[in-house]
Fold Enoyl-CoA hydratase.
Amino acid sequence: MLLTTVRSSLRARSFIRLSTWRSLSTATPEAHLQHLEKHPGVTCLSLNRPHTKNAISVQLLQELHQCLDDVQFDNRARVLILRSTTPGSFCAGADLAERRTMTPMQVNKFLLDLRSALSKLENLPMPTIAAIDGPALGGGLELALACDLRVAGHSVSKIGLPETRLGIIPGAGGTQRVTRLLGLSKAKDLIFTARMLSATEALQCGLVDYVSAEGSTAYDRALQLAGTIAENAPLALRAAKQAISRAPELALESGLDFERASYEPLLKSLDRLEALEAFKEKRRPVFRGE
């Protein structure tokens, strides 16, 4: 009797897991990759939860991890744009409605997975751009901070880390990445006050790098920026990102050694030879990432 009960319980659990997997696999993707044919070398990682302004759910986080794993080794992706599929939105942070249904263990796992995803994003080999076309709050701003560059839409009015107003602190890298980007004083001011910044204010303090023209979107400006970057040699872009990213943690002499180590392999690349030939022939080089 006991054995029968155990077997029934195991079958029920297997059915629940299978049903959950099927529902996730057949649902509309909440994060997906797209190579842009009209913009060679540019790939988009799109967030797609319009009804929640792309609040980060368990499913979105799982799919974000998969997208990052896929794009990491995709040589077609010379530049990655992180964007929303919904006009007027970016990412409103964690899905608090879903969070209220989670156990403490599930919350801890979610936070660990979120930290891991943002580290993956930050450490992608190609340059990354966040196109902020709507509110970037809490975890949403932390997501943008894990990108190399940030572009805000002209009319965006809510960019910030409101966690202290909610009884917590930024928990997905906000205290660390904002401090590295803005310095101690500005980071403390932003987090202590929990205030929202407009796109213009975010540009003035250095939180974003570009603001789109009036009547244009952050995605439009990000595409323009990505196109400019993608014209350059892919191997050189990756080596430059690698060297720059290590700079803050290295003493100057060690940093110069690391820069030289990143520079040396490029001298033997086919792209370097192509650049020299193109310069000699007074034409634009055609880089292949080789």
